Amino acid sequence: MLLRLVSPISALLSNSSRSKFPANCFHSQMGSESKSLVENKKSANYRLVNISGLKTDLLEINSNEPKLHVLLIPGNPGVVSFYTEFLESLYEQLGGAASVTGISHISQSKKDWESRRLFSLEEQIDHKISFIEQELRDVEVPIILVGHSIGTYISLEVLKRCQKKVTYCIGLYPFLAVNTASSTQTFIRRLAMSPALCTAASAIGALFGALPSELTGFLVKISVGKSWSSSAVEALCTHVLKYHTLRNVLYMAMTEFQTLPEKPDMEFIASKKSQIAFLFGLDDHWGPLQFYEEMRKQVPDSCLDVEREGHSHAFSCTAAGSTWVAQHVSSLIRAHVQLAKE
């Protein structure tokens, strides 16, 4: 997703078959449970909350009789409206049996609530833990985390510290370790490490964001958003192309590269393999297949899949990607719940 952030700025300036890789996850059949999807369709509602004194954007779909609570932790940028279609589709696929919440990262929003203060990866992790302790304190049903990209790393850290509340964690296109072989990551790292370059890139992005909305939307659409949904284009134009958001995106990226190891934490993954599942992308430098293969060998019987439907790391920016990944996640959740009953 971060590459999608850098690409539009530079650009504006100048279905294959199912995975052939072995899948170790048991997926329950949707079958008759899919018949009532239309009946369970709901729109996500926006809510602004204070978490430990910090303004936080939420997207929520509340079930009347929830058996689960699913919490989405986004990638970087952590603008939750990028995931609108995904959250709505996931709620549908789960038959309305789970409440679904998406949480933004601090100061990656339309308004500069925190007066240009910058927040590190560790502060974003603490923020998600505080949210669970504050907003989900009285939730009596199991909490399932769904993390995307760096949100997967955050989800695993939350799982380590909130094991009494969180029962399952699903990582989508996971960014768990620095990929030293990726030229894209090298470029972003150099950009994020330079205060001068971060300031310049953020100012340029904000300049485009200040253009009339129709023009900004058109430029985004013809550059990187040709297949993007209207909600994703709007999220980029109204939330990401802001000086405070871009500075926070790049500052968080800098601390990601400083914090993440060069290999995923296989020891923890192995110790919690019954509570963790991952979906890797076929051509994704954030979560390369090298990590998938290493995990498959070092953590036998772990729940791993590779998506080969032609969706990208930024799956939530397209309607097709959002729907397919929501179906995959709902299948994992159903299988986990079924196994927990046995």
TrEMBL record:
<keyword id="KW-0378">Hydrolase</keyword>
<comment type="similarity">
    <text>Belongs to the AB hydrolase superfamily. LDAH family.</text>
</comment>
<dbReference type="GO" id="GO:0005811">
    <property type="term" value="C:lipid droplet"/>
</dbReference>
<dbReference type="InterPro" id="IPR019363">
    <property type="entry name" value="LDAH"/>
</dbReference>
<protein>
    <submittedName>
        <fullName>Lipid droplet-associated hydrolase-like isoform X1</fullName>
    </submittedName>
</protein>
<dbReference type="GO" id="GO:0016787">
    <property type="term" value="F:hydrolase activity"/>
</dbReference>
<dbReference type="Pfam" id="PF10230">
    <property type="entry name" value="LIDHydrolase"/>
</dbReference>
<keyword id="KW-0551">Lipid droplet</keyword>
<dbReference type="InterPro" id="IPR029058">
    <property type="entry name" value="AB_hydrolase_fold"/>
</dbReference>
